[in-house]
Amino acid sequence: MKPLNSLFxxxxxxxxxxxxxxxxxxxxxxxxxxxxLNRANTKITQAANLVxxxxxxxxxxxxxxxxxxxxxxxxxxxxxxxxxxxxxxLDNRPKPILVGGVNTSQSGFYLMVPLRLEHRDEILWVNRxxxxxxxxxxxxxxxxxxxxxVVNVEGIVxxxxxxxxxxxxxxxxxxxxxxxxxxxxxxxIEGRLRGWNQTPFILREEDAGVExxxxxxxxxxxxxxxxxxxxxxxxFALAFCGFxxxxxxxxxxxxxxxxxxxxxxxxxxxx
Length: 271
Known about the structure:
Blueprint: H1 2-11, H2 16-54, E1 59-60, H3 68-71, E2 75-82, E3 88-94, E4 107-117, E5 123-132, E6 150-158, E7 180-182, H4 187-194, E8 198-205, H5 225-270
Parallel strand pairs: 1-2, 3-7, 5-8
Antiparallel strand pairs: 2-4, 2-6, 3-4, 4-5, 6-8
Helix pairs in contact: 1-5, 2-5
């Protein structure tokens, strides 16, 4: 037991600061790894829920007033007319992953256009799709086609089109009577500014094979799961390396002290 007690003393008692620091770093790295695993599990759960809700009967936006709770992540069809002059281009949006292709991570816009529902005094905002940004002139909007007559739109209901980091107060800028570029879309604020009666959700249009200059190959919710697993492995590996470093340095100090004590004993006996 004496060697074990000596080893314990060398590793911990005589290295309190190093031990506490090592424990703090290891705990922090393990927590980061667990967080990454939780993020991956959350995405997988959300994707499963989305698939389940998409298999439910398709809703009709023109049939009645729908709440967000009733419609979220459900398939929905809507009939109405686009108000193209009120379009909003959401900047700094990554290119959706192409079906069977590779994501080039090109930056561009999401095109949000209000749809005036037929036979209803209600506006439904539609995320019509993605278009590339003009890198030479940010203010130059992509050439896309917006139908002028009554159209049928089918897609999936979401509470918002997603947010990106934004400097400032996030209030709408520019003339409300013409298309404008914004960082984020705020449904309630748009309704108040325009005095519109709006649905409490947006519709993300699905690809129907229409050539209008917009890409609608939306990225699945599970995008990035493998990356989360890789990050989690890295954090756990760092935690393990931190433990090994703490252990090996302590053992080396223990052996070094043992060798010094042994030499000291030999010298004393020689005298």
